[in-house]
Amino acid sequence: MRSNVAVRWLSRLDGLMLVGLSVFVFNLVLGKDYWFYLNPKFKPLSLTSAVVLAGLGAFGLWRPLARWSWWRTGLFALVLALAVVSQAGVDRDMGGESLGQDNPSAPVETAPASRVKMGGKEYIRINAGELYDISGKHLQDKLGLNYAMRGFVRRLPELDKDQEFIIYRVALYCCFADTTAVGFKVKLPPGASLPKNAEWVVVYGQLTGLAGAGEKDEPAIPGAVFASISPYNLFQADRLESEPPLKTPFMYEWHEEEPYAY
After folding, report:
1. Contact 149, 235 (CB under 8 A)
2. Is residue 224 helix, strand or coil?
């Protein structure tokens, strides 16, 4: 039979494990790797969970249970170990290309105007996911409009010869495990120089029909679990500009009407 003192000290292990889990969640919320696990919009919920875990852990250390259970302590230890191992195993290289890691050098962005005038034309600012939905639904009243869309560049040899490249953004629905690269093939005007691979650019132009529409031969996008490159439309660019990537360049929301979540 274990002494009461020994049982109380063993029971305090439960509280210690809960405190460890709270430290892990706090570190996750305040660090740069949160999006590997969850959509950043869940940060307030995760922070609340960390506070609750810390409170329960502190109470468990102060007032341990009168009976110690090895399986309960073992379960807490297993969860904490899995959390630590999962963070240690996160691939921060993202397949060699930056697909959306926080860019600490980027300024905090304010919401831009929903439209911008360039070269005598007015362009609607829109993100790749919203424009993909428009093209997929064949909304004719919106397909012929002028759009400004930004994202990362994906160069491929078979596209280079036709003065084309892929522009994409990474959609984060829940967590990194369901990331989807969403984008379009872009056709540059004659004489324009192709951008660098993985460069962040803004393209101004219109959607046109794509030869062989409907054929699914989507290129792989390093770091993204899935890729959805429009098989129906080509983005015919009027002009292209380079700019610094957003602080967090993922797509988290989609709007069906202006102002879009550019």
Report:
1. yes
2. coil
For the chain, which domains are there?
4-90 (no CATH), 115-242 (2.40.50.140)
Q: In the prediction, which pLDDT does 97 show?
A: 45
Task: Render pLDDT for 50-63 as a digit per residue (tens, 0 to 9).
Answer: 999 999 888 888 88
The band of 13, judged by pLDDT with boundaries at 50, 70 and 90, is confident
Average pLDDT over residues 137-142: 78
CB 95 within 8 A of CB 222: yes
- Signed CA dihedral, 199, 201, 205, 208: sign only: positive
For 164, phi then psi, to 5°, come to -130, 160
DSSP-derived secondary structure for 106-172: SPPPPPPPSEEEETTEEEEE--HHHHHHHHHTT-HHHHTS-EEEEEEEE--HHHHTTTEEEEEEEE-
Going by the DSSP 8-state scheme, the letter that residue 251 receives in this structure is B
Amino acid at 239: R
Q: Which residue has the tokens 């005598």?
A: 120
Closest CA to 54 of 11, 19, 15, 14: 19
Angstrom distances, CA of residue 109 to CA of 9, 244, 248: 51, 11, 10
Phi, psi dihedral angles at 180 (to 5 degrees)? -130, 125
Percent of the chain with pLDDT over 90: 34
Q: What are the distances in angstroms from CA 173 to CA 218, 235, 262? A: 20, 25, 16
Residue 177 has what DSSP assignment?
G
Report the distance separating Cα 24 and Cα 50, nearest Å: 8
